[in-house]
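Page 37, continued from 36.
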């Protein structure tokens, strides 16, 4: 575990496991290991799939609170802030994997984005599993166990293949719109990547359009057609989400948050935040900290 901006950030690697890129554990075992205590809201620097077969309590994902019910599965992206509070011992699985795990198994990040299960900073509701897909998904997880616990040849390759199969089954258990056309899909994927990498210094649509070698008008058309809102709204949503995370879950002042997010003048950040959220950064922090 490492500390960043006073928000806990958990990593798959530690002193005992310096090269760990994948982990599979039972929820009930983790519950016993921590004696049922509830951790503070925290981030992961890896992807996590949390399947609650049986449970009761709540799951906080960024600023959305979900009641824990049986047979629901969550998909968490790196950087999201979450907290699980159990009112009884849960049963299920937690599967974690890093971006490096995707890399060593030649799994493109576009697969993770296109599978449309992980929502980095949008609402992340759980998937409710019906009996038949639940049996199929658990069968895949049980196939993972001997590879994860063993140290045989092609261990990572087997886990990587089974991970892709698991995500495809989860995707099939959801209802999704028709696939994007190839050209629009590439533009949208590249735009999302650029925003994720540069939202702290680039805040304008034309700056991203220039990086993608397209016009701002074309970028807006692609984003609007496929996501239902403009490129500007997408950029602002990403900045606001990070601002909320830092205001609520760190000890940074509003001024420090403003500087962290690339605003040269804190007053500009305060005006920007209030125009979108409806309250000042200080009022937001005070309200949610009650």
């Amino acid at each position: 575990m490492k500390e960043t901006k006073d928000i806990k950030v958990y990593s798959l690697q530690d002193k005992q496991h310096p090269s760990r890129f994948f982990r599979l554990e039972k929820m009930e075992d983790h519950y016993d290991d921590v004696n049922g205590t509830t951790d503070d809201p925290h981030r992961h620097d890896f992807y996590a799939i949390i399947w609650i077969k049986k449970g009761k309590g709540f799951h906080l994902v960024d600023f959305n609170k979900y009641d824990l019910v049986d047979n629901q599965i969550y998909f968490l992206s790196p950087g999201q802030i979450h907290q699980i509070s159990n009112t009884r011992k849960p049963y299920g699985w937690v599967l974690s994997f890093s971006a490096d795990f995707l890399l060593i198994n030649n799994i493109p990040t576009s697969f993770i984005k296109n599978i449309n299960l992980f929502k980095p900073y949008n609402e992340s509701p759980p998937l409710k599993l019906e009996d038949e897909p639940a049996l199929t998904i658990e069968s895949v997880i049980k196939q993972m166990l001997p590879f994860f616990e063993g140290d045989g040849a092609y261990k990572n390759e087997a886990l990587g293949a089974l991970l892709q199969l698991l995500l495809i089954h989860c995707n099939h258990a959801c209802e999704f719109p028709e696939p994007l056309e190839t050209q629009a899909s590439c533009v949208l994927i590249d735009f999302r990547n650029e925003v994720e990498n540069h939202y702290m210094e680039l805040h304008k649509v034309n700056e991203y359009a220039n990086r993608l070698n397209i016009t701002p008008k074309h970028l807006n058309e692609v984003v609007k057609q496929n996501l239902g809102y403009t490129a500007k709204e997408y950029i602002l949503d990403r900045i606001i989400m990070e601002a909320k995370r830092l205001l609520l879950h760190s000890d940074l002042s509003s001024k420090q948050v403003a500087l962290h997010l690339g605003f040269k003048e804190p007053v500009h950040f305060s005006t920007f935040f209030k125009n979108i959220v409806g309250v000042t950064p200080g009022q937001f922090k005070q309200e949610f900290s009650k």
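Residues 131-149 form the longest helix (19 residues). Flag for discussion at group meeting. Confidence is low (pLDDT under 50) at residues 1-5, 176-180.
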